[in-house]
Design brief:
The protein is of the alpha+beta class. The protein has helices spanning 5-8, 138-142, 151-159, 189-214, 220-233, 237-242, 249-256, 268-282, 287-290; strands spanning 12-19, 29-33, 51-54, 78-83, 92-97, 162-167, 172-175, 178-179, 261-262, 265-266.
Length: 298
């Protein structure tokens, strides 16, 4: 019987963390591994990914709560590891993370942070501080984006308030749809509103970034509609919604209505939310602006 790593074949791998909310609270992560897992989340949803243990240094006992915690990874972290069971490839172990910057987001949904929060910036793989940007300064990251009047209340009404953490299709959520710190967390409305504002500011900055990249020159109401959309589905979905900046504003407004499912099922709340976001996106937009397409003179 083959029972050593060398007998089974020592198999290295590189993957991307997509979930760190380990129900066993062992610091494990669900990792989508290149060459083993598809990027299509419909075929392989996050909950179907294996839980990977995280290797700790010898300075940590890794038992009885003694030592440090293996909880430094986040969704979107690139990690290097190996399979404990060799070629069976069912028991991954994370050895460490790989530093660097993503040059963009996946358009298929896999191999990225499903919440659309990380990476906080994309671009050349050079130290951002050398470009005058501190990637851990939240003021710089948000680019001081001002949220549209009433946007926080609009999104709060879409999400509804929950003082207790609840399972929300792919993660534990709390308050007004923000990610919970644990499955047992309880929160006040005041704290929930603060978290919502902070999260919305981050998504608004992503919308602003794509607006500048694709040169749509979206109005305030259009950006608010897309911020609500991105907050609900992740900023990476802006690429699919706009077809990487190739769709006209009219086509974007029509495509908004297609995002009305959760776990493969149409949800009435999402149907109504998409209709409201479409109305906000179209509100006050001149007819000639609806047919604007980046790179094309209308």
């Amino acid at each position: 019987m083959k029972n050593t790593l060398s007998d089974n074949g020592f198999v290295w791998w590189i993957g991307v963390v997509e979930n760190r909310a380990d129900p066993a609270k062992l610091g494990r992560c669900q990792v989508r591994i290149f060459g083993y897992h598809t990027e299509n989340t419909a075929d392989l949803p996050i909950e179907g990914l294996p839980w990977a243990m995280v290797m700790m240094p010898a300075t940590s006992a890794s038992i009885s709560g003694v030592g440090s915690s293996p909880t430094g990874l986040i969704e979107g972290s690139w990690v290097l590891g190996f399979f404990l069971d060799g070629n069976r490839a069912q028991e991954p172990v994370v050895m460490g993370s790989l530093p660097g910057y993503n040059d963009g987001f996946s358009s298929q949904g896999g191999f990225q942070d499903p919440n659309g929060v990380y990476p906080r910036e994309t671009g050349p793989a050079t130290n951002s501080r050398s470009r005058g940007i501190d990637p851990y300064d939240t003021q710089d990251l948000s680019n001081n984006v001002n949220l549209g009047a009433g946007l926080v209340d609009i999104v709060a009404s879409f999400e509804g308030f929950s003082p207790k953490a609840f399972w929300d299709h792919k993660q534990y959520s709390i308050g007004y749809g923000t990610k919970a710190n644990s499955a047992s967390e309880v929160i006040t409305k005041e704290e929930a509103k603060t978290r919502l504002e902070s999260n919305l500011s981050s998504f608004a900055s992503q919308v602003e970034r794509w607006n500048g990249t694709w040169k749509y020159n979206w109005s305030g109401k259009q950006k608010d509609a897309l911020t609500s959309f991105a907050y609900n589905l992740g900023s990476g979905t802006l690429r699919t919604l706009t077809d990487n900046g190739k769709r006209s504003n009219r086509e974007i407004s029509e495509a908004l209505l297609l995002y009305n499912k959760a776990s493969g099922q149409i949800v009435n709340g999402l149907v109504n939310r998409r209709i409201s976001e479409q109305r906000l996106f179209l509100d006050g937009t001149p007819e000639d602006k609806l047919d604007f397409r980046p790179g094309v003179t209308v």
